[in-house]
Request: fold
Amino acid sequence: MHKKKITSALISVFDKTGLKPLIQALVKNGVSLYSTGGTESFIRDLGYEVNSVEGLTEYPSILGGRVKTLHPKVFGAILNRADNSSDQNELQKFEIPAFDLVIVDLYPFEKTVIGNASETEIIEKIDIGGIALIRAAAKNFNFVFCLSDKEDYTNFISLYEKSNGATSIEDRKEYAIKAFHISSNYDTAIFKYFNKNQNRLKISMSDAKVLRYGENPHQKGYFYGALSDLLDQLHGKEISYNNLLDIDSAVSLMSEFYDGKPAFGILKHNNACGFAIRDKLEQAYYDALAGDPVSAFGGVLISNKRIDLDTANAISNIFCEVLLAPDFEKEALKLLKGKKNLIILIQKENKLPEQSLRSCLNGILVQDKDLKTDQENEVTNSTKLLPTKDQLKDLLFASKICKHTKSNSIVLVKNQQLLASGTGQTSRVDALNQAINKAKTFGFILKGSVMASDAFFPFPDCVKIANKVGINAVIQPGGSIKDNLSIDYCNQHGMRMVLSGTRHFKH
Reply:
């Protein structure tokens, strides 16, 4: 059956938002309504006739409302096949109507969990009848229209009125797919609440955003998630797949620096190419840019403070893809909007996930995010000479940046400014040499700088190279059976070394 006129509807919803105009549209077309409990009362209060499900089943709502619609007459009305003579004969025999439309809104399980309700309250918000109605109606999409999301009421009314009260098989199938997603998502939320066993993983996400393409134009790309919970886009072109990866890296890095003085970061290909902390945000931007003005071209910029007009004027002189900040001064935003394609984002205060997921081979890797930050009271002095107060401050600054840089990585810092990084090298020596050469290219004097490594030194080669260019303090996790080789070299050459005890690989 391609087209099917709606003559009867079962309506059972928790949230009555937007329901009134839908009821009015159905009544206008002479649709017979069936309902239960609060929804039945809602319809009667509107002044419309409605058939009680209890009258249909000849059973009252029992067990405190836990059982209302779970009855053969209800599900027979939904699951019967209009083109099956045996089904239709049984409907007649048992005096069962045929429902053409099922409207269901489930108990708010996730909202109840978020609201810190008791487990007893949470369990009572596990919908049984509603989820069964959705699955039954969606299964029988050949003959039944399933409306399972109140956000679709307006679109349904439009579709319904345009087709003079009939629905097409294409529309019924499309809404059935949506219904199965809602059912799956709901079950996943319940599972995640109860699941304490990491041997099991279930993922169900909606709000898919189709991206222009993936990493490259020949690849399709999608983002699943509620991006608006974290970011507000104020201006600019559509956010791309690669933009999102860089934004993720920028947000993760700046999470280490939200408290304290103005900090500014510039990232390219998921790594920081510039970062600085200063008393004024404008100066923090300039010193971040100085770290690598070449790589900054087309980069992602992020601030931990409100963007003022002076900083906006400075930023307007370079080409960048994305700018993130907690807020923008009115005039600063006006100026920046003059850059047509610049993606301007406000980062909202919102808790980020504590686990990361990534595809691997034919499965998924899951791990806790690296939320450990090296702290002053946790590092161990391994050399005779102790770092000065300023050196220790720089070492911890360098460690934070190193943690968010692709392994193998070496980070060079001086006076709360990123001088250079060696990123993603197969050898730690290569990473260090890369950082040194890069720093020299942009005119930095390395004497008095500090070095951070994301992993231990199995040989003293890196500290030897560092010493030759004037780097006089090092932070590394330690843990090599040959730690003493690097420590001894530092002692012999007046260098300081602290051990964090924590490796920060980022693959």
